[in-house]
Structure formats: C-alpha cells, structure tokens
Specification:
The complex is a heterodimer of chains A (about 120) and B (about 110).
Chain A lengths: L2 E3 L4 E5 L4 E3 L2 E3 L5 E8 L6 E7 L7 E2 L2 E6 L4 E6 L8 E9 L7 E2 L3 E6 L1
Parallel strand pairs in A: 2-12
Antiparallel strand pairs in A: 1-4, 3-9, 5-6, 5-10, 7-8, 8-9, 10-11, 10-12
Chain B lengths: L4 E3 L2 E4 L5 E6 L6 E7 L6 E7 L2 E4 L8 E4 L6 E5 L8 E8 L8 E2 L3 E5 L1
Parallel strand pairs in B: 2-11
Antiparallel strand pairs in B: 1-3, 3-8, 4-5, 4-9, 5-6, 7-8, 9-10, 9-11
Chain lengths: ~120, ~110
C-alpha cells in the first residue's frame, strides 16, 4: 500500500524566518512524483512544488525548496523568509506513474506565520 | 483563463436526500478527479475520469456514490440516500491528461447532511 505521513499537525514560525515541514511516504514503486500543496482557509488547493523521483536534484520554487531523500522516503518542505500569506494548511502528496494520476495525501500540517 | 469551478459552494441537505455536485474543469483538460476531504484531514481520492469514461472508481465508498462526465467536460458527483457521515468538502481537480501529474483544484463544495 502507498501511504503518506505528516507527523507535525501544527507548526508556527516568525515572519521572515525559515521553517521546515516533514513528510515521509511508503511505496514499492520506482517511478513516482511528490508534491506539496497549500490550502488556505478559502479551501483552494494550490500546488507549491513538485519533485520527480528520478531526479536527484532537489526542486526549488522561489522561497520554497524540498529536501528529497529517496532512500529514506522523506520529502520535507523548507519555506524561507516566511510571509504572513504563507499561513495555511500544507499537504504532502504522492502519485506513482501506475496510479493514473490520482494523488495520495498526508494528513496535513497547519502552519501559522506570526508577525 | 478560468480555473476549475464547482457548484454549489455549500450544500445543506437532510439525511436520506439525493444531492448532485457539479465540477467544471479547465477547458481542454481531459483528466478529471474527485476527492473528499473530511474536517482536518487530507483529501481522499474518489474517482478519476479520462475523457468521458471513469477510468478508476476505486475510491467511491459505496454504491450510493456515482459520478458522470457525459461529454468529457463537466462532471457531476451524485450521492443517493445521504448520510451524516457524507458531510465533507468535495474537491474536484483537472489536469491536461493523466500523465501530466499536475492537478488544478477547484474551491470545493462543502456538503453538510443534517
């Protein structure tokens, strides 16, 4: 079975500081994709960053970067220079090439950025 | 361009009633997904359409749930004999195709069964 685990239900960070959200996953697939989604109170799920498992280089998108440790099945998200607008629920998600694109989500981490 | 839209935004219904939830995907997107998100949880997959056909309905919880996409665009999720446990946010997502792996989500429909 494919599972995604986020062990931090809630986190907080001061504005302008850096925070790291953790995610681990379990799969026997060799070809897969990992994502971080942001869900603000508006409910709109927004893609933050994606990582292809076959790529060794960690993905980056502006202030967002990942630490992808394939052997450890770990996929953490680092947010640098945190902004008030980063306050949201963050979900780690997984899909295997054989999954027809359906996403498997973790339980989520609520991040609060404090002024 | 327009994103994924879902109607209604909120739906309150009585136990035992029938409801329909609508999803209008991004134009040109052939893949469409439905997810259900319970309070404080991550979304759970329900069903996936490629074009007009349901390619994977393994996430539908029981036969009270059904979804259609007759013309390969708009999709409707139908729930019969609603139960209080069906209360959740129902999210729809679309992608260019099933190999793009980048899904665009709608704002969801919050269903409350009283």
């Amino acid at each position: 079975a494919q599972t995604v685990t986020q062990s931090q239900p809630e986190m907080s960070v001061q504005e302008a500081e850096t925070v790291t959200l953790s995610c681990t996953y379990d799969t026997s697939e060799s070809n897969y994709y990992l994502f971080w989604y942001k869900q603000p109170p508006s409910r709109q799920m927004i893609l933050v960053i994606r990582q292809e498992a076959y790529k060794q280089q960690n993905a980056t998108e502006n202030r967002f970067s990942v630490n992808f440790q394939k052997a450890a099945k770990s996929f953490s998200l680092k947010i640098s220079d945190s902004q008030l607008g980063d306050t949201a629920m963050y979900f780690c998600a997984f899909t295997a090439s054989s999954n027809t694109g359906k996403l498997i989500f973790g339980q989520g981490t609520t991040l609060q950025v404090k002024p | 361009g327009a994103g994924v839209s879902q109607t209604p935004s909120n739906k309150v219904t009585e136990k035992g009633k029938y409801v329909e939830l609508r999803c209008d995907p991004i134009s040109g997107h052939t893949a469409l997904y439905w997810y259900r998100q319970s309070l404080g949880q991550g979304p759970e997959f329900l069903i996936y359409f490629q074009g007009t056909g349901a390619a994977d309905d393994s996430g539908l919880p029981n036969d009270r749930f059904f979804a259609v996409r007759p013309e390969g665009s708009v999709s409707t999720l139908k729930i019969q004999r609603t139960e209080r446990g069906d209360s959740a946010v129902y999210l729809c997502a679309s992608s260019l195709d099933s190999y793009t792996y980048e899904q665009y989500f709608g704002p969801g429909t919050r269903l409350t069964v009283t």
